[in-house]
Amino acid sequence: DDGLVSGVARDGGQWNALKYVSTKFARCDDPAAGREVGLWKRIAHRNVVPLLAVFPPVGARENLVMAMPEADLTLRDFLRRGRGSYRVTACVIQDLASHMLKGLAYLHEQQVVHRYLKPRNILLSLSPQPCHIAGCQSAGRLGIQLWLADFSRARGVGTQDEREAEAMASSSATAHYSTNICTLGYCAPERLGRVA
């Protein structure tokens, strides 16, 4: 089954999350089965969740398994319920937006388009730290580590990954990337007429 499992210990006492992706392919370097892995392996930035390990399908398990650090919660959860007495202030919003934009800028520098950005795909880890934003008056607030996550729909632009995907797609009925990839609540308004 596809899904995310958390609470898996690794050496050093840290916890990981494991993402299971169903696949009928035997190799995680196959362009169709491993596009997410291929893109994820070549990106490393403070605001992109790191890929720690990849476990190819073995025996009866037809799942590709990817290990990443476990986050405390998603941006969606954080905005809905907060964290204890923690308040979403202008300083916090500025901090979150800054981290998200830095992560997106890095992805675009690496010629990667995320294509599935929404609050559930933005992970947060919270820890007590002073605020480092100029003019912020919240000296003892929680520090936020923001990670962009879920590269299942990401694509490389002008890269070897893209050329392999196009070659594979041209052998099928269409040579175009799918465009029906958004979650309705986070879809660009101009796309709404095209989303089923």
Would you kindly provide a written description of the structure presented here, covering whatever features stand out?
Residues 25-30 and 172-176 have low confidence and may be disordered. It is built from 4 helices and 9 strands. Helix 1 (31-41) packs antiparallel against helix 4 (160-170). The protein is 25% helix and 23% strand. It starts with a strand and ends in a 26-residue tail after the last helix. It is globular and about 50 Å long. The protein is α+β, with helices and mostly antiparallel strands and 196 residues long.
Concise summary:
The chain has about 200 residues and is of the alpha+beta class. The chain has four helices and nine strands, in the order ββαβββααββββα.
State the end-to-end distance: 25 Å
Low-confidence stretches: 25-30, 172-176
Task: Strand order, main sheet: write it out.
Answer: 1-2-4-3
N-to-C SSE string, H for helix and E for strand: EEHEEEHHEEEEH
**Broad shape:** globular
The multimeric state of the shown protein is single chain
Bin the helical content. Answer: 25-40%
Structural class: alpha+beta
Average per-residue pLDDT, rounded, comes to: 74
Helices, by number, come to: 4
Biggest sheet features: 4 strands, antiparallel
Strand fraction equals 15-25%
Number of strands: 9
CA radius of gyration: 18 Å
Summary keywords:
alpha+beta, 196 residues, three-stranded antiparallel β-sheet
